[in-house]
Amino acid sequence: MKHLLSIEQLSREEIEAILDRAESFAEVGRRDIKKVPTLRGRTVVSLFYESSTRTSSSFDLAAKRLSADLVSVKAAGSSVDKGESLKDTIATLSAYDPAAIVIRHPYAGAAQMVAGWTAAAVVNAGDGKHEHPSQALLDVYTLRRRLGSLEGVRIWIVGDVLHSRVARSNLIAFNRMGAEVTVCGPPTLIPRGIEELGCEVSYSLNGVEEAEVVYALRMQKERMSESFVPSLREYAANFQIDTRRLNPRQLLMHPGPVNRGVELSGEAIDSPQSLITEQVAAGLVVRMAILYELLAGSEGQTPAGEGEGSKPTPIGTPA
Amino acid sequence: MKHLLSIEQLSREEIEAILDRAESFAEVGRRDIKKVPTLRGRTVVSLFYESSTRTSSSFDLAAKRLSADLVSVKAAGSSVDKGESLKDTIATLSAYDPAAIVIRHPYAGAAQMVAGWTAAAVVNAGDGKHEHPSQALLDVYTLRRRLGSLEGVRIWIVGDVLHSRVARSNLIAFNRMGAEVTVCGPPTLIPRGIEELGCEVSYSLNGVEEAEVVYALRMQKERMSESFVPSLREYAANFQIDTRRLNPRQLLMHPGPVNRGVELSGEAIDSPQSLITEQVAAGLVVRMAILYELLAGSEGQTPAGEGEGSKPTPIGTPA
Amino acid sequence: MKHLLSIEQLSREEIEAILDRAESFAEVGRRDIKKVPTLRGRTVVSLFYESSTRTSSSFDLAAKRLSADLVSVKAAGSSVDKGESLKDTIATLSAYDPAAIVIRHPYAGAAQMVAGWTAAAVVNAGDGKHEHPSQALLDVYTLRRRLGSLEGVRIWIVGDVLHSRVARSNLIAFNRMGAEVTVCGPPTLIPRGIEELGCEVSYSLNGVEEAEVVYALRMQKERMSESFVPSLREYAANFQIDTRRLNPRQLLMHPGPVNRGVELSGEAIDSPQSLITEQVAAGLVVRMAILYELLAGSEGQTPAGEGEGSKPTPIGTPA
Which of A24, C125, C132, C159 could form a disulfide with C104 if both were Cys (CB 3.0 to 4.6 A apart)? Predict the structure, then answer.
């Protein structure tokens, strides 16, 4: 694996390998010194053309816990302001010989293009409405820890599927892991022909009680002014997940940040069924695993502790 | 001490302990390698909802000199833009299992609330008009170094006391250390009943010659449009500290950033009586001490030098 | 050398010494661990009052690869917003006892003034229309690697010479290294009397075929509204460097970021003659060399590898 551009590119075995690696980083996270020297002296560039707290801080901290040197570029206040093309920005940053470039960009396919312009490993941290593979991996990781396996698990993805790269990547990933997926939302927010990706479609929450997992999507306020929904209030009346709709055996997920009182009720967010905080914790170790697999991965090895040298060493090496 | 939420919470002995610790970090700061491994592999989150150079860079550098991994989140360009609640942001950041969260927020009581939502140690870096405890500690540190003790020292706090968390925290801290405090400013900018906190009130600078220390507050330009003062010029005419008003035995302090020519004259700022730069230097070592006491503190120990391992070691250990 | 404020201040021998040092850092950049411990435990402050990707990320990464602790302050979101004077900001940041302050500021002479206010080494990362010495050094480095020497090399600097600190610093540096410089652009954008700095002037590209190196400057879009040029289209028609104008033996340079289709055609940027990416790579090692020379430089020594201790050690020491 040279780049991580999409979930589409990954086989079930490759997904499992990343998740297994993430488990070993979860173990590192329980140590006093939550850090390994794997990427010491190597450079990771983080290049975000859209604002983000969760994804960018998660990748940044992942790089730091792998001891990489981080160059973090936000579109605002950068040459991007001066109209430099993406290609030229990548050429510039590539001149530092980074080991990896983590990129978020508003255009679908941006990460793929970047991979053609640089010798660095490219990680797609979200490209327009296309894909958000690290999100899908952390969600599969979270569910695998809870349920052991996704085989046969029924998952409903609820909300603005049309504009969501998370919906797209997760649908593909959940399918690949053997889950049975239903996408649910108002007809204006479900893309035509999505069944071909291998899912059921529901235009109401009727039937959601069959799901083991309910995955709610963020509802952008802009959708109202764009006439996709008549009002957030009406959307919430029909599609908000609350503790009355959720039964106690169901698990609740959301990619964050949440609009409290729109796609989820406050009670649901804070309920024991909610995996939202576990998802964020998973994000850190899964992103460490992604960087590790791309930059340092090899069979039968695990990250060493601080001070153990920069080469991967056998499983079980203490910190 | 689990959190640092206010000066109110600290006894004189606890304040002294932090200042003693800060002295040992001042010694580290005189070494070639101004760094200790105390927090290696631990994560410090810095979360600022208000702009800041001095406080945020000071905490960030303090964390780095303790070898922590730092996640620095500014409100602009973060999920905060997307309307995420403070509670959800804290849940997100807490999922990284940080050792400490340093927070500045425009609402009084924000840090206290955050402490209820996270397992991390919380440091209040300013909450609305309530408290700014690290500022008060660095000011006490600065004066203790100059004067040996604050016992019986007469301190005038001059300016916009009403809107100032610095005034509030410093008044409490100075009192606790045995100083005698007078607050001074136009009646519109002195809160009613402030005498109950243990201070004199003066509505003019008459009598300021009795003070050993004059502590000027920042005058926000907004106060003029809000009608608290008729004009900055009139404010300056009545309350500006300049070298004519200051006598050569008096010390001058200010929390920064200064409005030159408003609350202080340029000459006063640059005079040998001014402790303003010493205050900033104190900020770094006091914030190292705060993080140390919260995260690594124990009796009779001092920070080790680089390469001495991550455990606190006995006083006198060379770098 | 205490500060790097201008190219003007440097003799040919001093320039050569920095370039030689940069060569040794280029060797570090080819290692797995692209990092040396030279500045461990020392603090570098990066203070940018103008937006920048390339220069600021380059200095930041240079500081990190030297193992310094970095405090990066951008004007937006800092006390600068609150109207603090440059002098007071420098006093504040100097209180952290940084080894170096790297400053970009819109006023010519700002870096020089800063050097008078701080004990830190000051690096001018661009001051108004005055100088940008690290850019000139990286450009000389790039050409020296390609051509062996600049002695007698004919270089045309094309574009908005009037507003360009790059043009000014490069003209001085190229001259000092023995090159023969022509500046070229519309009369409105060539400063009167520039010949006195030691160059020819041309108001058209006629004759550019004699150059071994064509150095194109960035054309600011603002120049059109300011009436310096009638339109970018007309500017491009007369002064754009494209592959028809460039002959295959000529080298092409640009300080970046490029306006594709204005001062350079896309084809020219991407041609094998273009050194633009090499310039960026040179920027990193030259800036490491600048920080090294100011903070750790001494005769006959070279940076040690990671783990070799923080003192400079003899040439050839492995990492």
Answer: C125
